[in-house]
């Protein structure tokens, strides 16, 4: 499943589509991280009926959705590169933020970011050369680099009512 399909389902607000993505995700402890892995945070966190918060991640190289409990304190930012080191869960954010992803899962534009609480703001501010860039969404591009869709930086959803 391409990033576009995953993001479309997660940010659709359609609980059936979201549940489908969750049901087909792999627990982080079962995901075999490789040197070619490019796992990003989807920006999506959900709370289960047991009041357990979980994070959904996505590997651009294997097209695998990965879920893990939200206890590793990863910044909730769609497009943030993450890795797992000496752990079953992804526990280290890498200071690379993918702001533009092509519909074939290639990363078109990325930015170096500081890992801090500012990454959870409504707008990410990037300083590049003499330019300040304000990013409010992740942009999905087609093969000709035209914008197909923009997805939010984050979403938190309670799947079951109390």
Quick structural summary:
The protein is mainly beta. It has helices at 3-10, 15-23; strands at 26-27, 39-47, 53-59, 64-69, 80-83, 92-102, 107-112, 124-128, 131-135, 137-141, 147-152, 155-158.
Biggest beta-sheet profile: 5 strands, mixed
Q: How are the strands of the biggest sheet laid out side by side? A: 1-4-3-2-12
Terminal residue distance: 31 Å
Enumerate the spans where pLDDT stays under 50 for 5 or more consecutive residues. Answer: none
Nearest-integer average pLDDT: 93
Count the beta strands.
Answer: 12
Q: Give the fraction of residues assigned to helices.
A: 10-25%
- Which secondary-structure class do the elements indicate? mainly beta
Q: What is the tally of helical segments?
A: 2
The outline comes out as globular
Order of helices and strands: HHEEEEEEEEEEEE
From the alpha carbons, calculate the radius of gyration and give it in angstroms: 15 Å
Strand content: 35-45%
Could you explain how this protein is built, in words?
This protein has about 160 residues and is mainly beta. The protein is built from 2 helices and 12 strands; from the N terminus they run H-H-E-E-E-E-E-E-E-E-E-E-E-E. It has helices at about 5-10, 15-25; strands spanning about 25, 40-45, 55-60, 65-70, 80-85, 90-100, 105-110, 125-130, 130-135, 135-140, 145-150, 155-160. The protein has a 5-stranded mixed beta sheet, covered by helices on one side. Strands 5, 6, 7, 10 and 11 form a 5-stranded mixed beta sheet that branches. Strands 8-9 form a two-stranded antiparallel sheet. Strand 10 and strand 11 (about 145-150) form a beta hairpin. The protein starts with a helix and ends with a strand.
